[in-house]
Amino acid sequence: MQRRPISDRVDWAGAQDWDRSLFDALMPLPHGTSYNSYLIRGSQKVALLETVDPTKFEDLLEQLADVPRLDYIVAHHAEQDHTGSLPWVMERYPEARVICSPKCKDMLLDLLPLDADRIDVVEDGDTLSLGDRTLRFFHTPWVHWPETMVSLLEEEGILFSCDFFGSHVAGADLYARNLPLVEDAAKRYYAEIMMPYAKFIKKNLDKLAEVDFKIIAPSHGPVYDNPKFILDLYHDWVSGPCHNKVVLPFVSMHGSVRHMVEHLAGALTRQGVEVALLDLTVTSGDALALHLVDAATIVVGASSLLGGPHPLIAYAATIANALKPKTQFCAMVGSYGWSKKGMDDAGALLAGLKLDTLPGVACKGAPREEAYHALEELADAIVAKHREAGLM
Predict the structure, then answer these.
(1) For residue range 131-147, what is the model confidence (pLDDT) as tens digits?
(2) Phi and psi for 300 in degrees, rounded to 5?
(3) Which of 205, 223, 232, 296 has its CA 20 to 30 A from that of 166?
C-alpha cells in the first residue's frame, strides 16, 4: 500500500501483513496485522516513527522511495516487529539519528546490530523540534515492555501510542470504521499483551488523561480519529467491574466432563448468567484470554489423565495465571477413572490469581444424579457470589 495522509505533514507509511497467522509463535491472528510507521515532515527536519517487521522491509522501502532525507527515527519500543528493519533504514539514511528511551537504547543494542553512537535518548517529557512541528515524549513503562514510550505531535494533537491501544488487524481502512471488528481485535490484543500489566496500564491511562490529543495512531491496527471509542474500552477492561459471566474451559476425553459442564452451563444460564463454554481440544488459548478480560468466574472442567489433570487443562491454567485477569471466583468440575488424585482443585491450578475458590464437583466415571445435584448447587453458589459482588 502507498503512503496515506493523516494530515498535510503526517503520513501513514507502514505495511499490511494480511497473511500472518501467528504472533509471538503463540497468538492466532484471525485478521492478520499491520506494522504502522508514520512519516512527519517538519519545516526543518523529517522524522520516521517506528519501522516495520523485517519480513516487510521491502514495503517500507517503497514507502520511503521519494524521501531523500531522514533526520530522526523514533523507536518507541525495542521489539523487532517495530524495529527489525531499523538497521537497513539507518544504512539507507546515514545522517539519521535514532530517538528512544534510555532503557530502549540498551535493549536495541542487545537485539540489533546498531551503532550506539547514532542513538540519542530522551527522558520523560522531553521534546524534539522538527521546525514548525514538535514531538513530545512520554515514558509509558510496561505497556507492554519496560522501555516503551509514546509521542505527541503537539501542533496537530496526534498521539503515536506504540502498542498502547493497538489491534492486530490488516485492512484497507486507515481509520477505525468497522467498529465491531476493531473492538474484538483490540480486546484480543489487550487480553494477550496488556492484561498482565493492568495496574501499569491504569497508571499510564491516568498519565495520558492530562495530554491533549484528538487522534491516536498506534503501531498495529487502524488509527482512531475518535479516541473516546478506544479509551472507553480500555477504561472498562482495566478498571471496570467484572461482568456477570462464567468462562468454562474444559477437556472431555469420553464425554463425562462434557455432560457435566453442559449441565452446569444450563443451570447458570437459567439464572441469568452469561456462560462461555470452551472445548480446549478445538479452542485456542486466545479465546480463553478474550473471555477472561471481563468474566467474574472461571470454572475448569477437567478430565484426569495419567494421575493428573489433562495437559490441556494445565495449558489453560498457565495462560490464566500469566494473564492475571480481574476474575474473582473459581471452581473445578471433572471426572476421573480409578484415582481422584488428578482432580486438583481450581485454587491449586490457578494459585497465581488468588481467587475465591468455590467447592468443586468431581465424579467417578459418568455423572449421575448425585453429581448433577452438586452441579446445581455449584451454579447456585456462583449466582450468590455474583449477586454479592453486585454483578446481577
Answers:
(1) 999 999 999 999 999 99
(2) -95, 125
(3) 296
